Amino acid sequence: MLKKIICRLVRSLTKITLPILSKIFIKLRINRRIINYLNSESATSNNSYNFSNIILNLLQNKKLNGLDVGAQGGFNSDFFFAKRYNNFFEPIMVEPIKSEAEKLKSKYKYVIDHGLWSSSTKKDIFILGNRLGSSSMYKPDKSSFKIYNLNQKNMESFKITETIEIDCLAMSDAIKEIGIQAVDYLKIDTQGSELEILKGMNQLRPLLIRIEVQIFSMYKNVPSWTKLLNLLDDLGYMVCEWRKIGSNSTRTATEMDMVFIPNYRTEKGKALIKENENKFTSLMLIFGQLKLLKLISKDLELNSTKEIENFEDRYFF
Question: In whole angstroms, how far apart are CA 76 and each of 100, 152, 159, 206, 234?
Answer without folding.
Answer: 16, 30, 27, 17, 28
